[in-house]
Structure formats: C-alpha cells, structure tokens
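Chapter review: from sequence to fold.
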Amino acid sequence: MWLRINSNTRRYKRLRNSCSFWFLVGLVIACWFGYLQLKSEFLKPQALLVLGGATEREVFAAKFAQKHPQLPIWVSSGSNPEFAEWVFSEAGIKPDRLHLDYRAVDTVTNFTTLVDELKGRGIESLYLITSDDHMRRAQIIGEIVLGSRGISFKPVTVPSGRTPEPMEKAVRDGARAILWLTTGYTGANFSQARIE
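The token string follows.
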C-alpha cells in the first residue's frame, strides 16, 4: 500500500513538473509573439515587400506605393521584369525605388532570400503585400524568418476572390521556416508548389 501511494506521488510530481515546463514554454512563446505584435504597431514601415505569385499583387503594390512615396519596394519572384517595371512605371514609381529579386522558388524562400539584405539595409519594419488567400501562410513564415532578424511587418492584403489556403500549407511552410532558422536549409526541393 505504501509503495503504491509513494509511486502515485512521484508520478503526480513528474506530471506537475511536466505541465509547469510546457506552461512556461507556451507563456514564453505567447509573450514573444505579443512583443512582435506591439513592435509592429509602433514601428513605422521602412519598405514594401511584395510576394510574387499573382500579377494583381504587383498592380496593387504599385498603387499602394503611390501613397508611400518614400518607401523602397522589393518584389520577390514576381512577374517577368519587363511587366513588373512597366506596372510600377505606369504608376509613376521611380525605377530607383524598385528592387526585383528572382531567387525565390516558393513562399518560404520569398523571405529567406531577402531577409539578410533587408536587415543589412537597416530595415526594421515593412509592409508585407500578398493576396488575402495567401496571407495567413505568409504571416506565419514572416513571423519566423523576418522575426529572427528583428524585422516586424504590417500585413496588407490584396483582394483575390479566392478561398483561403488550407491550414496544412501554413503548417508545412511554418515548419520549413523553422528548419531554415535552425539549419539554414529551406527544404525548397520538398515543396509541392512553386511560387504560390
């Protein structure tokens, strides 16, 4: 009888310690994301980052950039250079504000290929422009990749008329962003779809 009570007491203590550990982990993560949210509210964006994959994003970004004439614009693996340059030129955007980058092969690499360049230019906050159906995944990846370099962002959605992407894509690419953060490898060759 005494052994059973002693054994149950030990199990209870282990369970209590385990629960306390996971509670603290959850609390730290919640505080971190809360801090990032507050930071993004108070920092004024210093650039626009447009995720390629749909031409309406670039058209929207060109109009958005007219309202923010001092901000440089990065387009990550968007439409061909001639079309992109024409869209922004038609909107009156000077060519020296526009940075076209075609290294990315998917949404995760939209972020990983540019994050160090953005950080190197002293950018601490930016507008993130992508389609509304794509924004959830982009935000998850952005929180991980941009957040790892202390860059916050304000999401700006482009209406698409499409239904939101399945949660599985956001989870998959969130895991790939964590993989990049810990190993420097994006897992791009495992991605099922390119430039989504």
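Two observations follow directly from the output. Confidence is low (pLDDT under 50) at residues 191-196. The CA atoms of residues 62 and 91 lie 6 Å apart.
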